[in-house]
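Worked problem 6 (solution included).
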Amino acid sequence: MENRSELIIWLVIWVVICATVIRNQWSRKVPSVGLPLAYLLSLSMIHFFGGIIYALPWYNAKSAYLLQSGASYAEVSAGFIESVYGVIGFGLGSTILANWILGTFKPSWLRQTPQNPDLQLPKQLLQVGFFFMLIITPTIGSLPGFQGFSTSGVYLFVVSLCLACWKAWHQQDKKAFFFWLAVSCSIPLITINLLGFIGYGAAATLVILIFISSFYRPRWHILITGFLVFVLGLSVFVTYLRDRIEIRATVWGGQGLEAKYERMVNTFSNFEIIDFTNQSHLEAIDQRLNQNGLVGKSIYYINSGQASYALGGTLLDALTAPIPRLLWPDKPSFGGSGRTVSVYTGQNFGAGTSVGVGQVLEFYLNFGSTGVFIGFMVFGIIIRIVDITAAYKLLYGNWLGFASWFLPGLSMLQPGGALTEVTAATAAAVVLMILIRRFVLTKSSKLKFRQLNSEH
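Solution. The predicted structure is:
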């Protein structure tokens, strides 16, 4: 007989860590732009919700769908507990150790003098982001060596919206602030109609809302809004998943705007509010927002002797992933997350099926539970240091410096992907910002200088 109440204590620990990170982010002593909380909430989407539904005594975890997918309570429980070990490590690294390291070593990049911000920067980054979204990504974005740049270019769209909201808030332009907020909240609808996916847009909106929460006042507005976003987000998710096949058939079938509009109207005219007593809603979460089962399968698979720990093998791959093949033509192929998951769980996936290994599973398959705790602790330190640095740049008016740190920080917010994808995307974001500073913004600055001279 399953004792589902044992999961409750682990769920409580997760909530306490999230509350601690929120309190640390909202502290007036050390600034933040929300990166640690964004990562933690993204991790919650693929682990915490899975833990919740398996703690519910009325959830039928032996339904036909779940039996077909090979899920079991023991595996999900074991996987969720490992994810909590990771959350504890992340909380320790992001709230205590990162601050201690910066306070002890006092790196030079934190030293800032107040300056006048470039008020045109949000518009310029938005234009570059649109260029990548509309031109680069659909054409050469999928070619080897360009995927990272393509992804980072789209992330610029998020950076520009964050800066636009910051600019409007501090200029006390409420009309502009709520306009950019509305644009940010509409991103999931845009990605559904353009790509047929909701996840990318939801993740982008989440980042922007968390960024806004770092400076918005009063705080109680944020808490109420956060609860509403939680309920609305899950409601949109179960509604979307119900009609996902029809939506993608419309989008991928190349139908016109009128057909896409009708599809959206038909879907959301029958909008479903999330109901944690509804078996189909719980199964939707289990199907798409629960990586605990894969982690649990890996635990049992490795402990039974059918696979051996990688002992840092995939971590070494992550360190070499940023090196482009132009410089290293014989660089080993990493085979993708799906292959890694199959090797360490024994589960095979159909051709074309996208399966992210996720950081919990990847840290575990290298060094077990110790690897999960230490790996997330290091990850928490790195993300918080990037977060604090970006916040100082922003507060002192160095908006370009903020973007140069915030963009790579966004590339790290991939808790469901492989570490090779994280390091490659982060390196691409750094290079992209160097190129933008060197060519795009320099050219723009020279043009403004010439215009000023001609006026005088």
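Discussion: The mean pLDDT is 87.
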